[in-house]
């Protein structure tokens, strides 16, 4: 195994690990952290800030995962697109994956800009959204798009492996 092969295996591993953290972490955020942060107003009388602390820690880890995904994604895309085995189908799926990923990152930026900054007396959380408004929530969209991007990654792998045969 050459050095280039080792670098590509490590890049693939880091890319998959970061993507799994992004999507899996997004699910944990939606199902655990966000509800805890919403209930924080009730716990503030007891001096607890668990939900916001978790959200702040999660945000730092997501930043690391995004950087890892972008760097390794560029390396992997360059390697595959310069290969004789990547056909038009692979390039088309990569284009859709890139477009969805950029949309996902944009939505995540929107969420971050809307998030209130810590203050001495934070405002009570807004009432939970239900129905269609909850489904269209930016955080829900980020996770849903992340799941689709993960699927597209699997499809790209299958296309590339089939071309190797």
Write the layout of secondary structure elements.
Elements: H1 3-38, H2 40-43, H3 50-81, H4 88-114, H5 131-135, H6 138-164
Describe the structure.
This protein is an all-alpha fold and 165 residues long. 79% of the residues lie in helices and 0% in strands. The chain has helices at residues 3-38, 40-43, 50-81, 88-114, 131-135, 138-164. The longest helix has 36 residues, at 3-38. The chain is elongated.
Summarize the structure.
With 165 residues, the chain is mainly α.
Please give a handful of descriptors for the protein shown:
165 residues; mainly alpha; 79% helix; elongated
Would you list the SSEs in sequence order as H and E? HHHHHH
Unreliably modeled segments: none
Our estimate of the beta-strand percent is under 5%
| Multimeric state | single chain
Q: Compute the separation of the termini in Å.
A: 20 Å
């Amino acid at each position: 195994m050459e050095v280039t092969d080792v670098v590509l295996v490590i890049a693939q591993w880091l890319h998959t690990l970061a993507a799994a953290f992004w999507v899996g972490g997004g699910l944990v955020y939606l199902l655990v952290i966000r509800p805890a942060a919403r209930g924080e107003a009730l716990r503030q009388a007891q001096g607890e800030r668990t939900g916001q602390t978790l959200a702040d820690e999660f945000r730092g880890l997501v930043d690391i995962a995004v950087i890892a995904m972008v760097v390794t994604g560029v390396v992997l895309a360059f390697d595959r697109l310069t290969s004789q085995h990547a056909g038009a189908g692979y390039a088309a799926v990569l284009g859709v994956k890139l477009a969805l990923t950029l949309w996902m990152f944009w939505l995540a930026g929107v969420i971050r800009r809307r998030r209130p900054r810590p203050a001495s007396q934070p405002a009570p959380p807004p009432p939970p959204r239900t129905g269609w408004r909850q489904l269209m929530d930016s955080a829900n969209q980020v996770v849903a798009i992340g799941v689709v991007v993960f699927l597209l990654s699997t499809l790209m792998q299958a296309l590339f492996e089939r071309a190797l045969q």
